[in-house]
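In the design runs reported in the main text, the only information available to the sequence generator was the tokenized backbone. The following block is the verbatim input for one such run; it is reproduced so that readers can re-run the procedure and compare outputs position by position.
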């Protein structure tokens, strides 16, 4: 980030009204080409997202190069909660209201998971307005990302235990680690909506199929997929990219179900280049000294060990690469786990990725 946004800044919602009378909360930050970040319904709350350090760094970096517009879908976040219609038509009406309120004539869209079908449908219906699309975890059929047995088991918790569902989707499905950021993410999901709205929205999303809209989408579409993702298969992303007249698939490293959780600098650079046609203003890098502020200070050798852990090296590999004994590697590992509050290699790797050490 270039520092254009005050590090303590939290967006104050503005409001737009849809043609069916629903109040939709939005924020507008940065300058440049209009770039609308679609809401992660039914768990959208952009104010809560900006309170999470890893997310605000990513959004702030985007806002260095684009005019970033976010909004909460109907029934969620700071938008009107008491809604009955959560259909695809209603979701398109939300987007219509926001871009009209902000005076956007042409813009790009970022859709992910359930919001991808809305982004695709909107681009097909408004080819003169949508400059480009970026999709992550997206499919043309809403059932696809929710059809796996693990996801179905998780969704069944909505009916039985909302708190357990929230904790599970935060940590098991999306991969947020324990600690302050994981706690803030769980609060975001817990308070973003109600079980009734979540259930109705996911039911409507699972029935949505915009396959027939794809040939009408004339703008360039960037489909992003993580190499080791499991929520949406690589085959599904390949199928989507191939079905679009001007679609292309790019593979991101890692397995996170969240777009900006792993290799955020690479993700943002790809998006900025695609949307603006130029490199980002400044790569999103978090220095080791910044990472140290999250936990106790790591020694240079502990940082070296953490970097090799994040690269997937075994203790024997690390010992050979660094020219130290396995016992010394184990001692450094124990110390750095304690300092960054990691329970194992997965937590340590997530920490290294979030803080630019990997």
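Verbatim output:
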């Amino acid at each position: 980030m270039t520092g254009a946004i005050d590090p303590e800044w939290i967006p104050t919602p503005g409001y737009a009204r849809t043609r069916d009378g629903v109040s939709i909360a939005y924020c507008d930050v940065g300058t440049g080409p209009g770039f609308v970040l679609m809401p992660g319904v039914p768990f959208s709350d952009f104010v809560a997202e900006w309170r999470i350090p890893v997310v605000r760094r990513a959004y702030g970096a985007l806002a260095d190069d684009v005019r970033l517009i976010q909004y909460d879908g109907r029934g969620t976040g700071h938008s009107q909660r008491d809604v009955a219609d959560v259909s695809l038509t209603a979701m398109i009406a939300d987007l219509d209201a926001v871009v009209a309120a902000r005076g956007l004539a042409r813009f790009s869209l970022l859709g992910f998971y359930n919001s991808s079908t809305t982004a695709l449908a909107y681009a097909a219906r408004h080819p003169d307005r949508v400059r480009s699309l970026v999709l992550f975890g997206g499919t043309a059929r809403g059932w696809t990302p929710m059809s796996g047995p693990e996801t179905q088991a998780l969704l069944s918790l909505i009916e039985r235990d909302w708190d357990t569902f929230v904790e599970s989707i935060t940590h098991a499905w999306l991969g947020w680690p324990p600690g302050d950021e994981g706690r803030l993410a769980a609060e975001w999901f817990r308070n973003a909506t109600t079980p009734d709205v979540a259930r109705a929205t996911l039911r409507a999303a699972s029935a949505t199929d915009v396959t027939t809209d794809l040939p009408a989408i004339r703008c360039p579409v960037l489909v992003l997929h993580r190499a080791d993702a499991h929520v949406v298969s690589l085959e599904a992303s390949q199928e989507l990219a191939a079905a679009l007249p001007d679609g292309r698939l790019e593979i991101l490293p890692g397995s996170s179900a969240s777009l900006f959780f792993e290799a955020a600098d690479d993700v943002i650079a790809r998006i900025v280049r695609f949307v603006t046609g130029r490199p980002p203003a400044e790569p999103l890098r978090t220095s080791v000294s910044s990472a140290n502020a999250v936990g106790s200070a790591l020694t240079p050798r502990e940082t070296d060990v953490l970097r090799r852990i994040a690269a997937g090296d075994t203790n024997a590999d690390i010992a050979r690469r660094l020219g130290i004994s396995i016992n010394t590697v184990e001692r450094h590992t124990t110390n750095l786990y304690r300092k960054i509050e990691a329970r194992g290699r997965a937590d340590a790797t997530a920490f290294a990725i979030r803080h630019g050490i990997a």
